[in-house]
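Course assignment 3, question 2. Fill in each field.
Student: A.L.
Task: Predict the tertiary structure for the chain below.
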Amino acid sequence: MIAYTEVVKIIQLDPIPMADDEEWLFRIEILKHSQKGYFAQLWRQDSYDIKPTFAIKPDWIASETLFVQENYRLEMSHKPHYFVDVESCLSAILTELTKEFDLSQ
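Answer field:
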């Protein structure tokens, strides 16, 4: 049997305020591996100024907003963690983010 992974849920969190009057927007993807169970990927929205490598008008730069993978913030990123259901997977990620950003108030 061919193993596969499918996205089963996407959660976008409310922006988290940072010390410098900036807000970070996170997205959590819950995925299911066909043989191992549920796991998560964490993404953060960020803006980049991008200059194409092909010929363009001088000084033309595109400002783009993209989601970049932030799995390194998760304790579980160093060793894959699989869960039996979506709820326990999401709960583990939210707990880690709460600790990371001291959101327990």
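Instructor remarks: The chain has a mean pLDDT of 88. The beta strands are 5-12, 16-17, 23-24, 26-33, 37-50, 62-69.
Grade: pending
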